[in-house]
Design goal:
By secondary structure, this protein is an all-alpha fold. It has two domains: about 100 residues, Rna Polymerase Sigma Factor, Chain: A (Orthogonal Bundle); about 160 residues, Winged helix-like DNA-binding domain superfamily/Winged helix DNA-binding domain (Arc Repressor Mutant, subunit A, Orthogonal Bundle), CATH 1.10.10.10. The chain is built from 13 helices and two strands. It starts with 8 loop residues before the first helix and ends in a 14-residue tail after the last helix. About 30% of the residues are buried.
Length: about 300
């Protein structure tokens, strides 16, 4: 059955996903949030681990997000995507938590130092053909990226994790953080380059091929690559044929793909049965508390006074 003409194919697909997930605005809050836990809990737990740095704080953050979802479920619109709605709550919670905790004011090298123009080497695994890349070195590169995320300053780390770990769109990240779309893109650009720098620092390297284009052409290609990553990686629309890229650009872009893959793998994390059970108990306890509060707030029935003749 074709969707009505007034409904875009994207909207129809989102509606199908909502229906297949069993999460809709008509569900009672407790049941809806339990389904959100099952569907999005592991990914949010991965986010929390990366943002908080330790398991205890991560559990607290995940619990805080889902309890907020329980309290705010009445604000969920039926035409919205439940994942986007929940991730927006997570983004605000994450920012508030980081603001409360404060912490080290981490610095990132200047943009000129992050750009690859002056580098004399590239990662061996990125320079090699896909079928010849060393799997162990690739896995170690991914691990270096994942460790380096915690070292990013908050203003770069939060949008990067929301975009690359939670797979939110750039527009949704901007809305959740109260930032302009171009600001988010700029921060993603810088965060990816910073993670790439951390990844290649201790990697096996080979001499960087000499560029065959003017620097401005390479910069334009890098911007196009970043825009494709903003849309969702290679499949997002980086249409420049590999044969048209110089060997140096191909290697740098493969390094950026490794960065994105490393972030995406974090989003596939698991939440242990113990953490899930603890979370569901907290949700049930909050539901019970809310029922008791509602019951007490209802005015009691006044006794019916007898008629004069009944006395």
């Amino acid at each position: 059955m074709q969707p009505p003409k007034s409904v875009s194919l994207a909207s129809a697909e989102q509606a199908h996903q909502r229906a297949s997930s069993g999460i809709s605005a008509g569900l009672p809050a407790g049941e809806a949030v339990r389904r959100l836990v099952d569907r999005f809990g592991p990914r949010l737990h991965a986010l929390a681990l990366r943002m908080c740095g330790n398991a205890a704080d991560a559990e607290d953050m995940v619990q805080e997000v889902f309890l907020q979802a329980l309290r705010k479920w009445h604000t969920f619109r039926g035409d919205a995507d439940p994942g986007t709605w929940l991730h927006a709550i997570a983004a605000r919670s994450c920012k508030a938590r980081l603001r409360r905790k404060g912490g080290v004011n981490r610095r990132v090298p200047a943009m000129s130092q992050l750009m690859p123009w002056a580098e004399t080497s590239v990662m061996a695994v990125a320079a090699a053909a896909e079928d010849r890349a060393d799997a162990a070195e690739r896995n170690e590169a991914v691990a270096r990226v994942q460790r380096a995320i915690a070292g990013l300053p908050e203003h770069l780390r939060v949008p990067l994790v929301l975009k690359e770990v939670l797979a939110m769109s750039v527009d949704d990240v901007a809305e959740a953080l109260g930032l302009g779309v171009n600001t988010v893109k700029t921060r993603l650009f810088r965060a990816r380059l910073a993670l790439r720098k951390a990844m290649i620092a201790k990697a096996a390297a080979v001499a960087a091929p000499a560029p065959i284009y003017e620097r401005q052409v390479c910069l334009d290609l890098l911007k196009a690559k970043m825009e494709a990553m903003n849309r969702g990686g290679t499949a997002g629309g980086f249409k420049v044929p590999q044969a048209e890229l110089c060997a140096r650009c191909r290697a740098v872009f493969r390094e950026l793909d490794l960065v994105q893959d490393a972030c995406a793998q974090l989003g596939m994390g698991r939440m242990s049965a113990a953490v899930r059970a603890k979370l569901l108990r907290a949700i049930a306890a909050r539901e019970q508390k809310e029922r008791e509060r509602t019951s007490k707030s209802r005015p009691g029935r006044r006794p019916v006074r007898g008629r004069t003749g009944d006395r």
